[in-house]
Amino acid sequence: MPLVLAPLALVSACGITDSGPAQAGPPAAGLPEPARPADVVHVYFSSPLGLERVSRLDRGPNSPQDALNRLREGPDEAERARGLLSFVPPDAPAPTVTGQRRGSVDVLVPRGWGTSRTALRQLVCTAADAVGTADGTRTGEVDVRVRRTPGGATDTQRCELNPGSGRGPATPESNRGAETT
User: Fold this and answer.
1) Residue 107 near residue 155, CB atoms below 8 Å
2) Sign of the C-alpha dihedral, residues 75, 80, 85, 90?
3) pLDDT at residue 169, rounded to an integer
4) Which of 16, 106, 144, 173 has its CA 20 to 30 A from that of 150?
5) In angstroms, what CA-CA distances link 40 with 48, 87, 133, 165?
């Protein structure tokens, strides 16, 4: 009998009191809802290997105008450290989207943009990516109709990707040549 009492004495001396169940808060309700993912806008900057697509968090739903506004801001400090730069004139206003349909967008380029072919390619690829994101059209299949003056002639361009490089758009044949800034 003394052997049976010894374990009982140890258990009763462990500090556990007979206080009943403790309050622990509300019952489990499952996993919390995941946060809504941030909207992302893509802009294209120049690199030694061609144009490069950069993702930026956006303040609202992605639209071609939002993308062109972000393009005008230029690369941030980290992007410049990676060798990215923009040929978009920093003191000129952003281009204006004047129309958009599935697979196409009309853009008015403001004065001060000059004739830089790389700036034009940055604009075309940025606008095409935003349209493609919005309506499911592949970026390279979006027609970007560029006007230099209101009511002026339209130059339709596409963002052509460089096959196999994975780096971004290549210089379209119509845009090949020396840069002018």
Assistant:
1) no
2) positive
3) 42
4) 173
5) 24, 22, 10, 23
Give the domain extent around 145: 40-161
The partner residues of 100 in beta bridges, in order of sequence, read: 105
Domain annotation covers residue 90:
yes
Q: In DSSP terms, which residues pair with 44 in a beta bridge?
A: 53
Q: How many domains does the chain have?
A: 1
pLDDT tens digit string along 16-70? 566 666 666 666 555 554 444 557 889 999 998 899 999 988 766 678 999 999 9
The C-alpha atoms of residue 154 and residue 100 are separated, in whole angstroms, by 14
| β-strand pairing of 104-108 with 143-147 | parallel
- Burial of 17 from C-beta contacts in 10 A (0-12 / 13-18 / 19+): exposed
- Residues 142-154: b if buried by 16+ CB within 10 A, e if exposed: bbbbbbeeeeeee
Q: Could you tell me which of 117, 144, 146 has the C-alpha nearest to residue 131? A: 144
Determine, yes or no, domain membership for 91.
yes
Burial tier of 137 (Cβ tally within 10 Å: 0-12, 13-18, 19+) = middle
